Amino acid sequence: MNSILPIIYLIAPILIAGGIALKIKINQINLRLLLAFSAAYLFALSIIHLLPEAFEVGEVKQIGLFIVLGFCIQLLIDTFSTGIEHGHLHLHSAECKKHLPKGIIIGLLLHSFLEGLPIYYGHGNGSSHINHQLILGLALHNIPITIAFVSLLKEHESTNSKKWLLLLMFSIMTPVGFLSSYLLQTFGLNNYQTYSQIAFAIVIGIFLHISTAILFESSDHHKYNKTKIVMMALGIILAYLIS
Fold this sequence. Notes:
The chain is mainly α. The protein has helices at residues 4-23, 28-57, 60-81, 102-116, 132-154, 160-186, 192-217, 226-242; strands at 120-122, 128-130. It has a two-stranded antiparallel sheet with strand order 1-2. A hairpin with a 5-residue loop joins strand 1 (120-122) and strand 2 (128-130). Helix 1 packs parallel to helix 5 (132-154), helix 3 (60-81) runs antiparallel to helix 4 (102-116) and helix 3 (60-81) crosses helix 7.
């Protein structure tokens, strides 16, 4: 398995976007447009590619159950992360700015780790493949999330080295999930194919929650302007072409 390139594809967008966001202030309107694009891409990717693949290789009722479970897991993570995974920011008081929001950080790291689990898919006959569509979806999804995360870190009194450390931790969590699945398959986890199907279904549920939450929150009074509609359409078209 050549795992170097997938890991680079997962880490590089976060570090590049994070470095830019640390240097300059990102316009919130542009961030919402980027979120709308990534959300539409994730939603379309889930419907066009991920769902059919999941139901094709797994037992339908079980796959559906774990998709719902993934949706609920993300709801639970949101209670800690306050929805930063879909670009939702809460500004803090002056007193809170002296302390890094540990709950948000832990929730975001857990979310990223779970997303990496189904990237590596092992088959019962010992063969395997890497889901490149999922990697691209995560790379696009993580760019606006990184900007939101850095914006939050900049609100708190911490050194640049600590900001970069947290950014690096965030960037490696999805590859850690990916490598965890690879090691489980390599060292002979019983019924690894079932594990892969469950992890895949859970992440689909997470994607559906995040994408719909972003599309809902990026609207003003449940209305979409022309620019957002165009960005959403581009995201859907990209997902269709790649899938």
